[in-house]
Amino acid sequence: MLGRLKQIFHKETWQESLKRLTKELVPLGGEADTLQGELVRCIGNLSDEAHRNGWMNWDVGDEEAIDVLCRYLPDQVVFSDEICRQIQKALDKVRYAGKDGADQGAFGYAELKFLAQRVADWCGHRSELIRKNPEATWLDDDPFTAPPG
After folding, report:
1. How far apart are CA 95 and CA 106, in angstroms?
2. Taking a C-beta distance cutoff of 8 angstroms, is the pair 34, 136 a contact?
3. d(Cα 14, Cα 130) in Å, to the nearest integer?
4. Which helix (H) or strand (E) covers residue 112, if one does?
5. Where does 32-76 have alpha helices with state H?
6. In this predicted model, what pLDDT tens digit does every residue of 32-74 receive, in sequence order?
7. 123, exposed or middle or buried, with CB in 10 Å at 0-12, 13-18, 19+?
8. Farthest CA pair distance, the chain
9. Are the CB atoms for 70 and 46 separated by under 8 Å?
């Protein structure tokens, strides 16, 4: 009985939320069709690069993940101006860690955790799935409309 009550009233942690969203929205390869899935995919890829590879395999895919997060995560509908500034600062530190910082002992682990929590918060707030045009990428000028012609 107590176990059933815990299930009913259990509030999903940010880690559980990201794990569930990964299963539901992140494809095995390539960009996600939804913005929620893409943000989860990006933070997951960066976390994997940091924790499994120690930033040793930083490449254009990691730069693009940072660019997607920079573009969509500091959302003033979801977060205060202060949190948006903190998100940008954390993204800058993670980019630095991946490009050069790990060689000097700057790994950005705390910033990655902060960003992962914000991705979970963002997805919780923006629960209606946001889809891009199938031919677009998330870094196109307007990924939500069909290209002309």
Report:
1. 11
2. no
3. 20
4. helix 109-125
5. 35-53, 60-72
6. 999 999 999 999 999 999 999 889 999 999 999 999 999 999 9
7. buried
8. 61
9. no
Tokens representing 62 are 């990691």
Query: For residues 137 and 143, is the Cβ–Cβ distance under 8 A?
Result: yes
Higher pLDDT, 2 or 97: 97
Please compute the mean of the pLDDT values over residues 76-101 and round it to a whole number.
Answer: 96
The pLDDT of residue 11:
86
In the Cβ-directed half-sphere of 12, how many Cα atoms lie within 13 Å?
Answer: 13
Q: Using alpha carbons, select from 65, 85, 84 the residue that is nearest to residue 74.
A: 84
Among residues 147, 146, 21, 130, which one has the least CA distance to residue 68? 130
